[in-house]
Write a structure and sequence with these properties.
Layout (H helix, E strand, L loop, with lengths): L3 H12 L3 E2 H19 L8 E4 L2 E3 L1 H7 L4 E2 L13 H14 L4 H9 L2 H6 L6 E3 L1 H13 L17 H10 L7 H11 L2
Antiparallel strand pairs: 1-4, 2-3, 2-5
Length: 188
């Protein structure tokens, strides 16, 4: 399994830039959260903690301690060779979240349940991967704003599609409405 330093270095390489360290921490967090949600497995092994400025991976923080900006060559790790589905999720997360500033990302994480539910000043409580998956899968299920994920093991249906499917469950032969609803769901 990869570690957070490798993912941070990969993010910096993919964005081809130096980055504010707060922003880097939040992008690493979102990669972990959405990867676990979309693929049902963590992206890296270290735990994420709820710090004052949002989610932080301690091992990554130790690499950039007290720095405001960091470049890929400052991280002592190799860029990992990831499976294609993992690489796609990271690309999708970066396409969605990289447009935000460090402080906008901090605000986003502060408004979300995984951080809010566990944050205690000066305690560094762990944000579990299970909490991340629970919250972000809910966002997918409710079709709330989220990264457009090309790879996801889950398929969610809209309420109207679900009603059509539910009504047709007892049919001996599939109704045209059921077939159309299933086609829409499977084409996503």
């Amino acid at each position: 399994m990869t570690n957070s330093l490798q993912i941070a270095k990969l993010i910096l390489a993919k964005t081809n830039s130096s980055m504010n360290t707060v922003k880097l921490q939040k992008l690493v967090y979102y990669c972990q959260a959405w990867h676990a949600t979309a693929l049902d497995r963590p992206l890296f092994e270290e735990q994420t903690q709820a710090w004052e400025h949002g989610p932080v991976v301690r091992e990554l923080w130790d690499q950039h301690r007290y720095q405001r900006r960091i470049e890929a060559n400052e991280i002592q790790a190799s860029i990992p060779a990831l499976p294609q589905d993992s690489d796609d999720v990271i690309d999708d997360v970066l396409a969605y979240y990289n447009k935000f500033t460090a402080w906008e990302l901090e605000d986003l994480t502060h408004d979300e349940a995984p951080w809010k539910a566990v944050y205690q000043p000066k305690k560094n409580v762990v944000i579990t991967v299970e909490k991340m998956k629970s919250f972000y899968s809910g966002r997918l299920a409710r079709n709330e704003e989220h990264p457009k994920l090309r790879r996801c093991i889950y398929t969610y249906v809209e309420q109207d599609e679900f009603q059509v499917i539910e009504e047709a469950i007892d049919d001996e032969t599939p109704s045209p409405a059921l077939v159309e609803a299933l086609k829409r769901v499977m084409s996503r």
